[in-house]
Write a structure and sequence with these properties.
The complex is a heterodimer of chains A (376) and B (544). Chain A has 376 residues and is of the alpha+beta class. In chain A, 54% of the residues are buried. Chain A has one domain: Aminohydrolase, N-terminal nucleophile (Ntn) domain (Glutamine Phosphoribosylpyrophosphate, subunit 1, domain 1). The longest helix of chain A has 20 residues. A six-stranded antiparallel β-sheet of chain A has the order 7-2-8-1-14-13, with helices on one face. Chain B has two domains: 98 residues, Alpha-Beta Plaits, CATH 3.30.70; 411 residues, Aldolase class I (TIM Barrel, Alpha-Beta Barrel). Chain B contains 17 helices and 21 strands. In chain B, strands 9-19-18-16-15-12-11-10 form an eight-stranded parallel β-sheet. A three-stranded mixed β-sheet of chain B has the order 6-20-21, with helices on one face. Chain B has a two-stranded antiparallel sheet with strand order 1-4. Classes of the chains: A alpha+beta (376), B alpha/beta (544). Chains A and B meet through helix 5 and helix 9 of A and helix 4 and helix 12 of B. Chain A: This is Glutamate synthase (NADPH) GltB1 subunit. Chain A: InterPro entries: GATase_2_dom (IPR017932), Ntn_hydrolases_N (IPR029055). Chain B: This is glutamate synthase (NADPH). Chain B: InterPro entries: 4Fe4S_Fe-S-bd, 4Fe4S_Fe_S_CS, Aldolase_TIM, GltB, Glu_synthdom.
């Protein structure tokens, strides 16, 4: 089972903190891969919160293709962070080209676009680059979004962190998600690594998604280009989150109702029973069956954790005002926030979504049996 | 027949018959129960002659041959009296002295079943044990990567939806603006398919309805039953149990006078209206209730004269084009119940099914599509229709489901599959296969008759006389002497047994696949088959 760790901190922290937690939880993953999402960035990116940052891996040929492509679209490089690799490679990690983290200036023609159009435009560019790199595998792109960096690689998380020099001073973030993979074979497509990202929404998961095919079929047929990929059965969790909030315009409290709806007797006793009945029926194909612990971030850097209906996976949230962490095991939490009040740790159960908002002051538990905050 | 008499072309011997009676003289007590019970008078009490040798140790006495007669059971060899293999004789025999046996040789009988130019008609089934559904295995077992669930202890949500489901955004918008949202029923995915009052005996019908009511009211299982084309007794129409019933309308509109007149008196809406356009067992052919079965009660419910055959036309009289037929019928039926009741067509599986589905996707009032495959049963049909017409259900359903996936409407128009589910007894496995291929639920008919009423029909041309009203079990007869053999209470009990055990088996299938929160509709990655071509066709895994 993969191990998950996410944190949200008032002050920017190094991604190595999250990797440390994964290292502590090492018994639970086989160190075969790691994926990291950084948001609400510190360091040099602090000054450029609104411009999109491209994260990915490119070969020399890929970089040339990318530069041509971006210039054609009027995107100029604003800032780039170079990751220098040591000469000696890492055992079990393929030697790749350049790990790219590059911020772009929007073209002038984009200035008149509204928020949704920009979001859609950024996603289209990411998908196009991904598409261009498919044939020769010379361009791998994880995200293209403001204030967001993603790194994914195969190998032991701690070794990868050191190998890529992620402990550098200029790489810091206030919201971090990290996953240590299990069962990753060396031929794995990097796109199958968590976290997954679409238009500012991101999730990572452990466990299998046994309802993957019907969910994938449903999302793929929504005619939304971002609902694609699916090298991993967990990618749908990010897309369902996007679908819930962006497409249906619902709040985070509705997400759990979509992936694990209440049983009828509980719906009957719910304040929003009519709404929930309809939501359950119309989103029937998005019901997950676990066993899954889902951790995700929203556009405003809210962090949350939700469990499958049977709560078959562990998961704990704890911390103190200004610094909270979400971990698939308590030892991960202990490693990063040892001085917290452990009596206030929360292990979300089958009806709960544990949420830490952008103010990072407290853990809110949203229980499915509570009334929804509906935009009605 | 003596050897010097004329032999007609259709003069048959015992060895020509499909079923032969094996009668044991030593055990028979000549009680006469077998001859009394035989539905086709295939056996009769007869006189046999026996030769006795009379010998003596006394050389002076001549050895003599003596003759004596004895009584026994003889099998008739005429076409109309040929044994149908129902084995009622064995069932009633107190001494195990008699049983029909299938003729292992070539059956010459078949060439003579068209006396007076009338081809064979029969009820029942296709008489083929082949089942692609039986070949499908569930291969995606959760084990270490994710734990298998416990069929006995986890909570399971196995209900399905019948009704037009709007796209999520549209539905929420209409909810907010108080617009019309199509009616959707939450039902159990195993539905008792259309078997009419008339095709079935009153006791069978009553038993089915009682069983369904018990399942709903006592066990909380929302099982639904279709009436078939033959109307519905007025008492049921005006009762609260109507909500468990899917009223079927077909091309003969039998019984709809009663139904329409009962609408103002209905306490509950019916579950749904099923418009039958086709039947898997005899696609392109209408329903048929032969005159033997049209007694006073049936005639009254159907609004027809007594003692006449009731062939429904192969197509609806009002049909001019698919658009008109489907759209108008669906609209009329929806209107009759104030748009509160789902209305959906049932068609026979065919290579043209996709066209019907595509039409429905553009009709906002179409609630579902039921597709009946070639292995479906019937109360009466020409043998040629049953044996040679039709389309297997698996590939037809799969094509339709994948078409819905392509246009993104897989959750909007539920597909229901019928025809051959459990034909060899594997009902839960067959149903689960179809659900994972894309069905929202399955309809069963023959299985109900076999499991709940002890129908003696098999896939080896046994019995098959449902059309003649002489059903030896009283399941498809309107003759009180026959249907009194069937106790409705026992039928109801068996219906409950059937559904409760099906439920457990279905859980035993979905639990190891890691599914419990919703019915695994379209979960095709769980399926595998050891036939490469079939795997390709169904878009599932090929396993050997």
């Amino acid at each position: 089972m993969c191990r998950l760790f996410a944190l949200t901190s008032k002050e920017p922290v190094s991604p190595m903190l999250a990797i440390k937690a994964l290292d502590v939880m090492k018994e639970g993953h086989d160190g075969s891969g790691v994926g990291i999402l950084l948001r609400d960035l510190g360091g040099p990116f602090e000054e450029m919160k609104d411009v999109p940052i491209l994260s990915g891996i490119f070969s020399e040929e890929g970089i040339r293709k990318l530069d041509l492509f971006m210039m054609d679209r009027g995107f100029m490089t604003k800032y780039k962070m170079n990751i220098k690799l040591p000469k000696e490679g890492l055992e079990g990690t393929p030697r790749r080209g350049m790990y790219l983290i590059r911020a772009y200036e929007y073209p002038e023609s984009w200035e008149t676009l509204d928020k949704d159009e920009i979001a859609h435009g950024l996603m289209s560019i990411r998908l196009k680059i991904r598409d261009m790199g498919e044939e020769k595998k010379d361009m791998i792109v994880y995200s293209f979004w403001p204030d967001t960096i993603m790194v994914k690689e195969l190998g032991d998380p701690m070794a990868i962190g050191e190998y890529l020099g992620l402990d550098r001073k200029d790489l810091k973030a206030r919201t971090i998600m990290a996953q240590g993979r299990q069962n990753t074979n060396y031929a794995i497509n990097l796109y199958a690594c968590h976290p997954f990202f679409v238009e500012g929404f991101s999730t990572m998961t452990n466990g299998e998604n046994t309802a993957f095919i019907p969910i994938k079929d449903f999302l793929s047929s929504r005619k939304f280009p971002g609902y694609s990929g699916y090298q991993s059965d967990s990618e749908v969790f990010a897309h369902i989150l996007h679908y819930t909030m962006k497409e249906l315009g619902l709040g985070l409290d509705a997400y759990k109702h979509i992936i694990t709806p209440l049983q009828d007797r509980d719906i009957d006793a719910h304040a929003d029973k009519d709404f929930l009945r309809h939501l359950k029926k119309t989103c029937r194909q998005l019901i997950i069956d676990g066993p899954n612990c889902v951790i995700g971030t929203l556009l405003d850097n809210t962090l949350f954790m939700a469990q499958d209906r049977k709560k078959l996976r562990p998961g704990v949230v704890g911390g103190r005002p200004g610094f909270f962490a979400f971990s698939s095991e308590i030892c991960g939490l202990d490693a990063v926030i040892p001085d917290r009040d452990k009596s206030k740790d929360i292990q979300p159960m089958h009806l709960d979504t544990a949420i830490v908002g952008p103010d990072r002051q407290e853990i809110k538990i949203c229980r499915q049996t509570e009334p929804l905050r509906l935009p009605l | 027949m003596s050897s010097n008499r004329t032999i007609t072309p259709s003069t048959l011997s015992l060895s020509d018959l499909p079923w032969q009676i094996n009668w044991n003289k030593d055990r028979c007590t000549l009680c006469g129960q077998c001859t009394a019970v035989c539905p086709v008078q295939a056996i009769k009490l007869s006189v046999f002659r026996k030769r006795n040798l009379d010998t003596s140790l006394d050389p002076a006495k001549r050895r003599m041959s003596g003759f004596e007669t004895f009584y026994g059971i003889k099998q008739n060899t005429t076409i109309e009296e040929a044994c149908i293999g129902c084995a009622m004789c064995s069932m009633v025999c107190p001494n195990d002295a008699i049983a029909p046996e299938r003729n292992p040789g070539t059956e010459r009988f078949k060439f003579h079943r068209d006396q007076e130019g009338v081809p064979r008609t029969r009820g029942g089934r296709r008489n083929s044990t082949d089942s692609l559904l039986d070949q499908i295995k569930f291969i995606r077992i959760s084990m270490l990567t994710d734990p298998a669930l416990d069929a006995g202890r986890h909570e399971f949500e196995l209900k399905t939806l019948l009704g037009r489901i709007l796209p999520p955004k549209e539905n929420l918008h209409r909810l907010k603006t108080k617009g019309w949202i199509p009616p959707v029923r939450e039902i159990y995915p195993l539905i008792i398919g259309g078997m009419s009052f008339g095709a079935l005996s009153p006791t069978m019908w009553e038993g089915l309805q009682m069983g369904v009511a018990y399942l709903n009211e006592e066990l909380g299982m929302p099982v639904r039953i279709s009436t078939g084309e033959g109307g519905c007794p007025p008492r049921l129409l005006k009762s609260r149990f109507l909500k468990y019933v899917i009223l079927q309308i077909a091309s003969g509109y039998f019984g709809w006078d009663e139904i329409i007149h009962a609408i103002p008196h209905m306490k509950e809406d019916p579950c749904a209206i099923e418009i039958k356009y086709g039947q898997g067992a005899k696609p392109g052919d209408g329903g048929l209730l032969m005159w033997h079965k049209v007694n006073k009660l049936i005639a009254a419910i159907r609004g027809v004269p007594q003692g006449v055959s009731l062939p429904s036309p192969p197509t609806h009289q009002t049909q001019y084009s698919i658009e008109e037929s489907v759209a108008k019928m669906i609209m009329s039926m929806s209107m009759a119940w104030g748009f509160r009741v789902p209305v959906y067509p049932k068609i026979s599986a065919s290579s043209t099914s996709l066209a019907v589905l595509n039409n429905l996707t553009r009709n906002d009032y179409a609630s579902a599509l039921a597709i009946d495959g070639e292995d479906g049963g019937t109360g009466a049909a020409y043998s040629v229709s049953m044996d040679h017409m039709g389309h297997p259900i698996a590939s037809c359903l799969r094509d339709n489901y994948l078409n819905l996936v392509k246009i993104g409407k897989q959750n909007e128009i539920p597909l229901f599959a019928g025809g051959g589910i459990g034909k060899n007894g594997n009902i839960a496995a067959n149903a689960a296969s179809l659900i994972m291929l894309g069905a929202s639920g399955v309809q069963i008919g023959k299985y109900v008759m076999q499991a709940a009423a002890g129908c003696v029909g098999t896939e080896r041309d046994r019995c098959n006389v449902c059309n003649l009203g002489i059903c030896p079990k009283g399941i498809t007869s309107q003759d009180p002497r026959l249907y009194r053999r069937l106790d409705p209470e026992h039928v109801a009990q068996r219906i409950v047994d059937l559904f409760v055990s099906f439920d457990m088996e279905l859980k035993k299938i979905v639990a190891p696949l890691g599914r419990s929160t919703s019915l695994p509709i379209g979960m095709s990655d769980a399926l595998g088959i050891n036939d490469y071509e079939a795997a390709q066709r169904l878009n599932i895994k090929y396993v050997v």
